[in-house]
Amino acid sequence: MKGLFSKLFKKSEPIEPQKKIIFNVDSNQTPEKFQHFKDELISFLTNNLLKLDALENEIFQRHEVLKSQRSAPNQSHPDEETLWDDYFELCKAIINPISVSNSNEISRSFGNPSQYHYLSHPNTKMFFIMKSDNRAVIETHFEVGVQKKEQFILKKIDEIWKIESKKYSFPDETTWYKDEL
Questions:
Q1: How far is the CA of 123 from the CAs of 25, 119, 136, 138, 170, in angstroms?
Q2: Which long-range contacts (CB under 8 A, 24 or more apart) does 139-145 make?
Q3: What tens digit of pLDDT does each residue of 117-131 get?
Q4: Cα(30)–Cα(127) distance, integer angstroms
Q5: What predicted TM-score, i.e. pTM, was given to this entire model?
Q6: What is the spatial distance between Cα 15 and Cα 17, in angstroms, rounded to a whole number?
Q7: How far is Cα 108 from Cα 105, in angstroms, rounded to an integer?
């Protein structure tokens, strides 16, 4: 049974989103001189979030296969630890190059629906807010069971855009809570 994971799942190619999604973006709060950044930064953020989403979906499916092969329902499969290790490594490969704070400690989980599945919902609203050359805010507003909004702060460092932070909130609240990619 040892090594079953490697036999079932070959090393994956880099995770790419399955489809290109066109977003309706409100940029009314952004002065005209920064409007040209909108498409570039929305694409940067959403493409990377969709990569994380595709990875989470893949890991969830692989976990379901391993779960179905457990010797007993309350036991873990011998290859589940390897699955988690792969997941963390693949997450780091996506997150560290786009994040201001590179980390070897990434806290992740996977499930169905996945964390960024809302990006494929037609009712997802995006807001692009940019008021300086080196900082932009992208907010997503969506409803999947409950209404929620997420805020991504993008910062330009050495001419490269990176995600400085992520926060979440709810429609009737003014407080934003720190979150992880």
A1: 12, 9, 23, 16, 16
A2: 141/171, 142/118, 144/113, 144/117, 144/118
A3: 999 988 899 999 999
A4: 9
A5: 0.85
A6: 7
A7: 10
